[in-house]
Amino acid sequence: MLRFNKKVHTILAAILLLAFCMPASAQPSSVHPNNNQWSRHSDYSSPVNKPKISWTVPIDDNITNMVIDSKGTIYTVSSSHSKSRLTAVSSQGKIQWKAELESKGRDVVLFRDNMLIVSGSSNEDGVSSTLSAYSTEGQLMWHSTFPGVDNFGQGSIGVDDDGMFVMSGLEANEDGNQDIAIIAVNTLGGTLWTQKHQLKSPHTTASSPTVVKDGIYLTVSKGKSEQISKGASTIQYDDGRLLRLDKQGNVVWSRFYHGYHLASPVYTQNTLYVPAGKHLYLYDLNGKRKQKIEIEGALNNWIGPSIGKNGNIYYGQRMMEPSGKMLWSFTPFDIPSSNEYPTNTVAIDNKSNVLYGYDSLKGKGGGIISANSVTKKVNWKLPLYQSLSSPPVIGKDGTIYIGGSKLFAIKAAK
Q: Which residues form the Pyrrolo-quinoline quinone repeat domain (predicted)?
């Protein structure tokens, strides 16, 4: 079901359509348009010496993701138990506008520097998933609802250069099994197609889609119940598949592998990096498996790998060579005397410095750490004294943005 906001006037829709139909080359270049289709290796540098907090902005809810436009404006999507909102903050730390979301916000992407697409989920009147579009001035342009589709674990949005937005979710069918639903929407909020992928299992998982060139890639898995003790059982997911769909939603091919993971495949340097539990699989875009890497150490099924421009892999609390050989354990979680652990994906600046947020097991709140992946030494550690829920993002001027219930801007100390 597609529901348009009644306030959208015909003249505004015509203007927006003209703007979004302009060639991508005519649009300003966003500093950071999305997180999902990104190797996490930034084009910008970050402070090498211990920086300072330049400003903080209370957001109240927990920030899940953020994007930055060509003017340096930061747009955050945040959620709490009772509400969600989209917030625009200037590079000077001033809130420009807030928009209350009609569903629990999951992800935000910035299309052609002037259109914000927000994914969400709702449990009111039954489970549903949503996609909404806002202008960069905060005006709701359209809101699309997909009843019966649960994207709680798959909230990230895939986007192509022409303005096709793709998300995935789970949908229960009449025989008690869960299907994988993949939905594509255009820049006016119209549904282009819906694809159902059946695994014939009541226990299924799926990643969010990643759009690369003329293909849409995501992983799906099915599990089975296994008894672990008398009266207790668990679901084991060991039947995973990497799918490639074409731009019309048709399955082009499927590749089997062992394991599962909720993070999207990461694409860079003509390679898809597919996390799958204790393994990381590398495929080319035609589905040929190039490599299988065994991962040691603790893993989080929500956090995907980060890939450096030299091919080094940052995943599973380790830095590895492209061959899979471990080079360095870069998180404080591996220090026996430490009570800190990483909270999200790693960002890498253009000088191979690694940035990651951490939290404390002792309840002291979190902070951010910068480490040099070449020397394998920590550059600095900056406590922020609150739980962090977003990955770090580097601005064009080297400012680091990271957030929990506050948005922090961290700059080089003068």
A: 83-254
* Per-residue 3-state assignment (H helix, E strand, C coil) for 19-87: HHCCCHHHCCCCCECCCCCCCCECCCCCCCCCCEEEEEEECCCEEEEEEECCCCCEEEEEECCCCEEEE
Distances (CA, A) of 164 to 248, 296, 371: 11, 37, 37
pLDDT exceeds cutoff 90 at 134 = yes
Output the CA–CA distances (angstroms, integers) from residue 375 to 40, 165, 310, 379, in the order listed: 20, 40, 15, 10
d(CA 381, CA 354): 12
At residue 11, the pLDDT reads 44
3-state SS, 257-275, equals ECCCCCCCCEEECCEEEEE
d(CA 110, CA 129): 19
Fill in the DSSP letter of residue 230: T
Question: Quick check: 410 and 46 in contact, CB under 8 A?
Answer: no
Asked if residue 407 lies in contact with residue 89, where contact means CB atoms within 8 angstroms, the answer is: yes
Q: Is the pLDDT of residue 16 over 70?
A: no
At 252 the pLDDT is 97
Q: Which of 85-89, 154-158, 365-369 has the lowest mean pLDDT?
A: 154-158
This prediction's pTM: 0.90
Q: How far apart are CA 347 and CA 401, in angstroms?
A: 11
Cβ-contact 212, 41 below 8 angstroms:
no
Q: Between vectors from CA 341 to CA 336 and to CA 345, what angle results, nearest 5°?
A: 140
